[in-house]
Amino acid sequence: MDSTETKAATAQNETAPRMVTLRNKIGYAVGDMGNNFLFDMGQLYLLNYFTDQVGLPSAAAGTVFLVAKIWDAFADMAVGTWIDNRTNITKRGKFRPFLLWAAIPLALLLIANFSTPNFSVTGKLIWAYIAYMLFGTCYSISNVPFGSMIPTMTRNSQERSELASWRQAGSNMGLMIATIGFMPIVEALPNQKIGYSIAVVIFAIVGVLAQWYSYANIKENYSAPKKEKVSKAELKKSFKALLRNKPLITLSFVNLFTFSAFNLKLTVQVYYCKYILKDMTAESWLGFFSIGMVFVSVLLAPILTKRFDKKYVYMMGCAIWAIADILGFFFASNTFLLVFFTSIAYLGDGFTSALNWALVSDCVEYGEWQSGIRTEGMVYSFFTYFRKLSQAIAGFLPGIVLAWVGYVPGATQTATALMGIRGLMFIYSAVLSIATIILMYWAYSLTEKKYSKIVTDLLKRRGSEQIAEPVIEESN
């Protein structure tokens, strides 16, 4: 793990020119903060809005997430394929324009999800399905290009880790503000259903402004070559190459584990605070301290990856997460202990979150090295396909479990229902963290030493790298 070979490989990976400025890094972080203002409302509060405000049965509400997220997963793949094969690339870049144009439609669709009309239960369910599926499709059009952009911003491995950390910092800032600020706005209004809608409007407006700021302050330094329209045979070849990318397959599965655990915890903590602790202020304390701890891991990740292989830093984070959640299951009986154990768990999760985007960028190079086909959009969308499946699980499973254990909205819960909430909060994530450690250890082979060899081989194949000319945009 701390071998001379690993250090040498890491040093060689850092010889690629550093292209990203502090302004670019801040812009990239703010972009993901905006993404989270627009996206996290659904993960944090939509299930509770459906069950406690709209009056949907918990199992039916959970099924909305399952169906919509499976739809989103295929939408991601379609969007990634479309982006990879675009032929009308302008001076704005291959990926940046999507940040500009998708922001407002995404915000309007988010508001629609929290503005369910007073229909019958069937009508409300139809509204929920349509609104959430359209939102997910629009989010794919915005987010797949955003995540695919790192390989065009820099070829430097360490700089990619730094960008991934900045992105995660922005994501966590968005999540922290959403967790701290959303429910106080809702509870400040006499009608909570209206409160949800007003709070969502505020976060949607700020999210749009953040995405536009990101668009104005990031840059694609490496030109994306214009492609001719590809045939179905070439598309089929690209998909086959994608399925042979073993590091990408492994990374996608461990994200299915870790991201479903993370999102399920976010969904369930509202119920935990309300029914087990009977203290809704705990939700804001969780947002400040537990999400704040992720910033610590985001700051530590680039330091640790200079000394240790990213794979082992990733596994270390999962070990911290699993231990904290096991202890939390037994001892988190008050607000202080819940915040303490959840903060330690999120410290561990932060290492996995910070490194995901650097690892998936490495998988882009691996795929090109293995097959001769470079498909940033398809690689990223394949990766996010599994993240969307994890979100489907995180939305669906709580609804099903809550129905199974006899959860009744707004009522005093039975001991069985309380145990179901506690198990969802802690045991699910602990088990999947341990599974991630096992899978990464045995199946993820793309070490820093191997990545260094891949980069060297690719540079020989490509010849000299062409840096994009400074972008000069026409005024609108």
Could you characterize what this model shows?
80% of the residues lie in helices and 0% in strands. It is mainly α. The protein has one domain (4-223, 231-462): MFS general substrate transporter like domains (Growth Hormone, Chain: A), CATH 1.20.1250.20. Helix 3 (58-84) runs parallel beside helix 5 (121-148) and helix 10 packs antiparallel against helix 13. The longest helix is centred in the C-terminal third of the chain and has 37 residues, at 335-371. The radius of gyration is 22 Å and the shape is globular. Residues 1-13 and 464-476 have low confidence and may be disordered.
The unreliable regions are: 1-13, 464-476
Helix content: over 70%
In CATH, the homologous superfamily goes by the name MFS general substrate transporter like domains
How much of the polypeptide forms β-strand, as a percent range?
Answer: under 5%
Distance between the termini: 52 Å
Please report the first level of CATH classification, the CATH class: Mainly Alpha
Q: Tally the helices: what do you get?
A: 16
CATH topology: Growth Hormone, Chain: A
Per CATH, the architecture is Up-down Bundle
* SS-based class: mainly alpha
- Name the helix and strand elements from N-terminus to C-terminus, one letter apiece: HHHHHHHHHHHHHHHH
Pfam family, one: MFS_2
InterPro entries: MFS_2 (IPR039672), MFS_dom (IPR020846), MFS_trans_sf (IPR036259), Na/Gal_symport (IPR001927), Na/Gal_symport_CS (IPR018043)
Main location: membrane
Keywords: Cell membrane, Membrane, Sugar transport, Symport, Transmembrane, Transmembrane helix, Transport
